[in-house]
Every structure is written in structure tokens, then in C-alpha cells.
Amino acid sequence: MKFTWAGGTHIGRKRSNNEDTFYPEQDGCGGEAMLVAVADGMGGHAGGEVASRAALDGAVAADGAPIDLVHAANAAVLEAVLEDTDLAGMGTTLTLAKLHPDGRMAVGHVGDSRAYLLRGGRLDQLTIDHNMAQELVEQGKITREEARNHPRSSWLTQALGFVDNLEVEELMIDLEEGDRLMLCSDGLNGMLPDEQIRPILENGAPSDAVWGLIEAANRAGGNDNITVLVVDIDGGGGGSERELQAST
Predict the structure, then answer these.
(1) Which residues, other chains included, contact 1 with Cβ-Cβ below 8 Å and sequence gap of 6+?
(2) For residues 3 and 232, is the Cβ–Cβ distance under 8 A?
(3) Is 34 helix (H, G, I), strand (E, B) or coil?
(4) Distance (Å, whole) CA 83 – CA 11
(5) Alpha-carbon separation of residue 228 from 45, 161, 181, 185 (angstroms)
(6) Residue 241: burial class (beta carbons within 10 Å; 0-12, 13-18, 19+)
(7) How far apart are CA 199 and CA 215, in angstroms?
(8) Which of 129, 144, 201, 242 meets the CB 3.0–4.6 Å disulfide criterion with 134?
């Protein structure tokens, strides 16, 4: 399979700095195995920026399955705090995917950045938000739509940079020709519900979708940094059926 990708980030309309980081930073295409990732830092001042950058640098430099890359990223953030105690309390989300030419995709995820898959006009959120609002959804106390604007949606239950024994969500998916993958920070889905994301995401080249979504999130308020990364899957070789399973 061949992959065509594009990414972009914007500070939004309310923040004074951008704590999001994504990889790869350059748009491109190719048929080799590749890694894509989005990290949304937290910690105020430079802390969030340092955390998200350290996490991605750690993940990119590591080898192995997505869980190994996420743990390497977590170790990199923890090490950055040890080197500069002024950064204590910083952390970051991380959502990454390793895409293989045979159509296999492995996802590692911690926090409330997201991975989505667009297939045949249907948009599916692949990852689960690790925040208090999602826990209330799972308990049946609020709806998924109510969770978007719930005051506890920003209360993360998991993030990189705080503990060694991090619990990583893992997914294995068989991609198909015509699929479109999207990774994003919550600055996108916090402003736009999925039904507004889908028609923008499915039109144009990956770069058109990226900047169309960023502009739409800013028009909706732009309350947070907004990062979007889109990958098109072209060519044969993947499984004929989508296979999605969580690993422990």
C-alpha cells in the first residue's frame, strides 16, 4: 500500500502558545512503513511544549511496537523533568500509529488526542478518551455529546510524564484501499462534533482536509491549539475486512 499524508497545527484563537506537536512535520507520500503521531502537551508556559516535543522525539527514536514507542516517549518526558525541575508537573497526551505496506496498522494511545478512520463515508473514532468525562459516559451518567462540553472533559485520567507504569491503549487494524486516517488533538473535536468533521475530512487532498478542519475549528471558537494529521491509504494488499481489537 501507498500512503499520502499531510499535517498542520494552529495556536487557535484563545491560547498564547502552541503546546501541540505532530510527526511527520513534512507532507509526503511513499510505500514504506511509517509512523504518524500527535501529542498535546500540558504544563503551562514552556512546559507543555517541552513535554509534547520530548515525547515525540522519544517515540521516533525508539524501536518496537506502538506500546514500546509510547513507553519510550513517557521515559523521555520523565527524564526531561529530572533534568529541569522547573518543568515538574508537565505532561502530554500521545496518539501514534505505525502503518505497514501490507495494510496492517498498530495504534498506541494515552490521553484525549484521537485517532479516527474514515471508510466508505463512515467516520469511526478508534481511540477512547482518557478523561473524566469519558468515564461519566461509560457510567451512563452523561451522553457522548454532553461529554464534548463537560467541565471534566479536560481532566485527564492518563497522560505521559507522571508515572513509569503507564497503561497504554493498543489497537490493531487492517486498512483498506480508500481509507483515510486522521489523528488530532482535542482542539479539533472539542470545537467540532463528528458529524461536522466528517464532510470536511472526506473532501479534497489530505492537506485540504487538514487546513479545512483547522479553519472550521477556529471559526467555531478556536478555544485550544488545533492539530490535525491525515493519511490516505492507496493501493491493494490490505485485509478485506476491518479488524479492530484492543490489546492488553
Answers:
(1) 31, 99, 101, 102, 103, 175, 177, 233, 234, 235, 236, 237, 238
(2) yes
(3) strand
(4) 27
(5) 22, 23, 10, 7
(6) exposed
(7) 14
(8) 129
CA-derived radius of gyration, the chain: 17
- Per-domain residue ranges for the chain? 2-247
Helical ranges in the chain per DSSP H: 47-61, 66-83, 132-138, 144-148, 186-189, 194-201, 206-219
Q: Does the pTM exceed 0.85?
A: yes
H or E stretch at 29 = strand 28-30
Distance CA 230, CA 204 (A): 11
Cell of 34: 511509517
Superfamily name and number for 2-247: PPM-type phosphatase domain (3.60.40.10)
What CA–CA distance (Å, rounded) separates 154 from 157?
9
∠ CA(29), CA(33), CA(34), 5° rounding? 65
CB-based contact 159:110 (threshold 8 Å): yes
Q: How confident is the model at residue 43 (pLDDT cuts 50, 70, 90)?
A: confident
Cell of 200: 470536511
What would the pLDDT profile of 152-200 be if each residue is shown by its tens digit?
667 789 999 999 999 999 999 999 999 999 999 999 999 999 999 999 9
